[in-house]
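FORM 7B - TANDEM STRUCTURE REPORT

SECTION 1: FIRST PROTEIN
SEQUENCE AND TOKENS:
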Amino acid sequence: MANTFGTDILIQAQDPKKAALFYVEQLGFKITDENPNMISLHGEHINLFIERGPALGPVLEVTVDSVEGAKLRLVKNGCEIVKDEPDFPRCYIKDPFGLIYNLRS
């Protein structure tokens, strides 16, 4: 059950550009990539990605050996699938304590 926490955090916002400008102006992030549905920002020790969509809250990226295996194990132990994207492959999981993970392999 090896996993790796990344330096990436993803949030979702209805207006990614507006959200990105807040983080640039208030916290010193730099926009490093921009398209209509995703803006990438980098800080000194963390990468912040703002995706167009309904707010889920902060999402931590966790790299796992198998997205399917981790998903089955976590759901069996009280987690809830928030968004599943098997073609990517990635899956957003909410744990019983409210934290959301982006599982990816």
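SECTION 2: SECOND PROTEIN
SEQUENCE AND TOKENS:
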Amino acid sequence: MLFLKGISILVGLLLVPLTINYVDTETYGLWITISSVVTWMGFFDIGLNNGLRNRFAEAKAHGDTELAQSYVSTTYAMLSLIFLPLLFVLIFVNSFVNWNSVFNISEVSSSDLSLTMLIVTTYFCLKFILSTVNIILIADQRPANASLRALSENIAAVISIVLLMKFTKGSIVNLTLGLCVSSLLLNLFFNFSLFIGKYRKYAPSISKINFSLLPKLLNIGVKFFVIQIAMLVQFQTSSIIILRNFGGEDVTLYNVTYRLFNVLAMIFSIVMIPLWSSATEAYVRKDYNWINLSVKKYNKVLILFIILGFILLLLSPFIFNLWLGRGVVDTNYTISFFMLLYVFSLMIGKAEGSVLNGIGALKIQMYSAIISPFLFVSFIYIGIKWELGIYAVVIAGMLSNFNGFLLAPIQYKKIFKQESKNPIWLA
């Protein structure tokens, strides 16, 4: 998994300069913003996929294949009932929205921007349904299989960009078609190949749809939904705020800097992926010693990643020039340093948080998530008033992530170190 994800990250980084060269920094910033906006639709799943991740792992731990298949079938059915009607509504609404005004951009024609939104909207609605297969693989502790699919999508994206550069003129519409169509076709193939093969016994079936299981899926899922909304504000609105206040070039600066240093968080997350579902299984079997030893090991690995982060900071000017080309994006040590601190804030407490997610102890995280967006927007507003530029967004993201680096470790310690039975920690 680590090997496959590592290659996927490298391919994803290669995609950035290719895309910028195919269009330009302004249009690339617009594409990133559009992707961020449309990704919001994923939160209409009200946490179903995360609920499935826990419930599927629990059913597997108990050896109940029929229940696991029912969870899969019900999740696919509900996602289809949510996203297919949503797609038709958005297609209808699209023709009435002035996207140039929404994104505060005039370089792209209104017809091209409207067509781009139509393509991206269709793609994301369908992908949200089809990507459930990756949740099943991760819940079954087969994250390498999910990583292989992500790598395939990134390679397909690079091939698409190369073909576009060779045969078409750079445009936001061509870029959208190339990236979306290749990814969607691969996702369709992955679903069919998996469910007629190794996972046939878990394949979605109309006869196995059981809406009475929804409360179990949603009991955890709704909490994840609230948490995801907070993530939406913190991660996905950044591009819009920067675009509207500082321009497309600063969106690109923010994005490429984040992409470089987020490699650390991505690799650490890759290492962490098995812990969530493994913790679910261990908790069901009351193997608390295994959980404590695993978290201890992961936190030792975190120290290594922090050291690597500062090495990456020192090498960042050379890496940016090699990656993007000299002078293509105006990066500097200051934005890189703050972005590194932001990435550290995402990594600290991640092991404890994964265990809490796996056992469904989400209430504290959910309440924190409700507060977090207000802190995020408030800090950005203050930073803009103080003329901090895009640093305001980075600092706001760091400070509003207080649950990850502060509350999650405390909650974990209360449950597994002090064995507290207080329901506030276990809920």
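SECTION 3: OBSERVATIONS ON SECOND PROTEIN
Residues 1-215 form one domain.
DSSP finds 19 helices and no strands in the chain.

SECTION 4: SIGNATURE
Preparer initials: ____
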